[in-house]
Amino acid sequence: MTASRFTRALRAALLATTASVSGCAVGPDFLRPKSPTPAAYTETAISTLPAAGGEAQQRLAVGQDVAPEWWKQFRSPELDQVMSLAIAGSPTLEAARATLAAARQQVTVAAGAFFPAVDLAADASRSRSGGSRSGSSSATTSGSSISNSFSVGPFVTYSPDLFGRTRRSVEQASALAEFQRYQLAAAYLTLTGNAITQAFNIASVRAQIAVVNELIALDRRNLELTRASFEGGRSARTDVLSAESQLTADLTQLPPLNQQLAIARHALSVLVGRPPAEWVPPDFDLDRLEVPEELPVTVPSDLVRQRPDILAAEETLHASSAAIGVATANLYPSLDLSASWSRAASIPSALFDPASTIWSIAAGLAQPLFRGGELVAARRAAVEQFQADLATYRDTVLQSFGQVADVLRALEHDAQLLDAQKTAMDTAQASLNLTQESYRVGQASLLQVLDAQRLFFQARLGFVRGKAQRYQDTAQLYAAMGGAWTSYDPAGPEEPRLIRFMP
Questions:
Q1: Are the C-beta atoms of 204 and 232 separated by less than 8 Å?
Q2: Taking the CA atoms of the chain, what radius of gyration do you get in angstroms?
Q3: What is the residue range of 318's domain?
Q4: In a domain, 365, yes or no
Q5: Sign of CA dihedral 121, 334, 373, 391
Q6: Phi and psi for 162 in degrees, rounded to 5?
Q7: 194-206 pLDDT, tens per residue?
Q8: Mind listing the pLDDT tens digit for each residue in 148-194?
Q9: Residue 157 lies in a domain
Q10: Which of 24, 35, 375, 387 is deepest in the core (most CB within 10 A)?
Q11: Domain tally, the chain
């Protein structure tokens, strides 16, 4: 067989490749599952949130998309800087990007089965036999012969995709790659949500520490006044003990708050990819943050196309559907084709002699007959796995709707709580002022003053915590809506080069 004849045979194999990929593909074609699309997230629709104790009132913008870099709605340059550092330096995102890149390479690996495999083989051997061989280059010693053999040439192997096993394998690998893409999006969403949570924790704890420090300073002043009054004979010893007890009790509030602040700072350092000893977060100030007045709320029917956890669950289901096709194709016959063309000779110089040409073409067909139930069980397992992943998908959708409903109710309750805390703080302030005035004219005891102070500062702490919780829940709503992850998506959807040859 000459080189031109072998080329024609190879071209025929390539044509067989094109013909084979147009054959039938067994197994189910994936259909996107139907998702529940309720008219609203909660049993009673929420359009406007209540007034929040003198703070900005929030409105729900139904159908509005989440803005890219949504954290900029809080109007904090320090927060913007930290979020940029977290996105750029997070090892979690780096790992997710590498995992996605590996998954996409696996798609190319799977798609390689669409084409014939062409390899070049070269062989050299030296053997000894019992007798001499006429016409060969050999050395004879004591009735035995030593001969040499050399060969070189290409060979081609190919398995036509008769029943779509390769197509379903590529489909499965593509779905898994898309799953990793949405996992990257979920990692981005988790990172940004956690980073802003820790930033708000820092702001909240710092505000609480400031209130407690004011309370402690007031306690120290009261103790000094009480001691002076006792030494002057105007107060009893019990008043001094009460003032000392109040100071000691309020001092115990600082260590837990300082620990919370340290934990939040360390956590934020880790989120930006830096050791706590090398990078310290900014001192976020709760009073310098602005709560967004208009909150985007995606309609339920669009939420399933925005949240990366739902999209990842869908791609898992898609991969399971393709796995059924792979398992089904394994039940059908498989065809293997091979061809080789080589030059073989006993000395290297003879490899260029046309008479040394050796060629072969072969085909093999195999039909599974008995595998001890292995192939049938494998297909049943794939079907059951599909059902499990379908249930997981439905659960993911329901959990997402539940999370949005929780956050919407939380924002409503945050506004109510903040309004109540503001009223309590104003009332406690008025009561403290009146009690202090009564104490100065001798109509109230020190114990009454201390009680009024404690109520006032407890109300202030409650207001600070309520304000911080409102910021936290506002950020949670942005995350629950999908966090505009498509504006990040550095990898983007990608179709590997070989996939364009698929039918």
A1: no
A2: 38
A3: 37-116+164-334+388-501
A4: no
A5: positive
A6: -65, -40
A7: 999 999 999 999 9
A8: 888 888 999 999 999 999 999 999 999 999 999 999 999 999 999 99
A9: no
A10: 35
A11: 1
